[in-house]
Amino acid sequence: MRTTWWQALAVGCGLALLGAGAQAQGLGDAVRDAGSAVARMRVGTIEIKDVTLGGQGGASVTIGRAAFAGFSRDGGTVVASRLAIENLTATVATQTWRIPLVTLDGVRIPEELYRALAEGAATTRPWPDLFRDVVADLVTIGTITVTDKSLNSEQVLSGFVLTRLAQGVIATARLDGIALTSAPDPKMPVRMKTGAVRYQDLDIGESLRIFTGGDGTPRRVMTSASIDGMEIVTPAATVRLGTYEIGPVTLAAPAEPMPTDLAALATTLQTGAQPDQAVVAKIVRWYRGLLRGLRVESIGLRDIAVTAPDVDLTIAAVGLGGMVASGFDLFEVTGIALRTPDGPIRLGRLAIEKASFAALVDLGLDAAETGREPEIEPSKILDLLPQIAAVRLAELDAATPEGPVTLGAFDLEIDRPGALPERLALALTRLTLPVGPADGSDGREALAKIGYTTIRIDTRTRLRWLPAEKALVLDDTSLAVAEAGRVDATLRIDGVDLAAALADPERADAILESQARLGGVEISVADLGLADRFYADLAKSAGVTVQVARDRLSTETRAQAAEAFGGALSPAALDKIAAFVRRPGRIAVKAAPRPGQTVKLDDLETMGPKVLSRMRLDIDVTPPR
Question: Span of the secretion signal (predicted)?
Answer without folding.
Answer: 1-24
